[in-house]
Amino acid sequence: MQSLILAAILIVAASMLWLALETRRLRTAGDEALRAAREAGELHAQSTREALEIAAWHATTAAAAVEAARQSATATRLLAETSQRAWLAVDGIHIMTRNGRNFPVSISTVIRNGGRTPAMDVETAQFHVIESAPAESHRQEPAEMTPEGNLGPGSAAKVASTLEYPPGSETAGRIREGELLVLVYGTARYKDILGNSRETSWAYRYEVDLCQFRPCTLNNEIK
């Protein structure tokens, strides 16, 4: 009887030991599976990040290439337009007649097309002012433009004006002393062969010592 009880106890103990070992084995296997899954997840996440970084780099590179191509095309177009467009510039202001004080009265401003293509629908305007120095930075919009037609490459047009002075010797003295400036402003508007609107503006002051007109430091532009 006792031997049967002892055998039963040994069988139960052996079963419990096997169960404990099997449970431990299963837990160890589960931990390893969980660790492997975690490592696989981290590896997948890293691969995804690297793939996203590579995709972002390619996108940035492609965008930069597109922008570089756009800028190159723009520069090429501007260079072509600049080399082929009409350029109206002022050759100078010629004094045709003078008054008794040797001041200019009638003048002729020569504008010339220095470009390779015609300047079309040219319009000009010119006026003069006598103002206190320093006043050459002042500018007014011309009241009326005069049509000049088209100017081919190398062609010139003359813009005539008549200057009027306030009466009296005081004004003449102030001009000679440099207290008053005799200023001539002008504008030429035209279109190039591409239909773009262009404009040339000029500003000259009469130099009493030189007895001729010289360009001002401001308001001489070709657009």
CATH superfamily of the largest domain: Immunoglobulins
Strand content: 25-35%
CATH level 3 topology of the largest domain: Immunoglobulin-like
- Gross CATH architecture of the largest domain: Sandwich
One letter per element, helices H and strands E, the order comes to: HEEEEEHEEEE
Alpha carbon gap, first and last residue: 123 Å
Can you walk through the features of this model?
The longest helix has 83 residues. Helix content is 41%, strand content 35%. Strand 7 and strand 8 form a beta hairpin.
How would you briefly describe this protein structure?
The protein has 223 residues and is an alpha+beta fold.
Which properties best describe this structure?
223 residues, alpha+beta, 2 domains, six-stranded antiparallel β-sheet, three-stranded antiparallel β-sheet, 2 helices
Any chance you could write out the topology, listing elements then pairs?
Elements: H1 2-84, E1 88-98, E2 104-113, E3 119-132, E4 146-151, E5 156-162, H2 169-177, E6 180-191, E7 197-207, E8 212-215, E9 221-222
Antiparallel strand pairs: 1-2, 2-5, 3-4, 3-6, 6-7, 7-8, 7-9
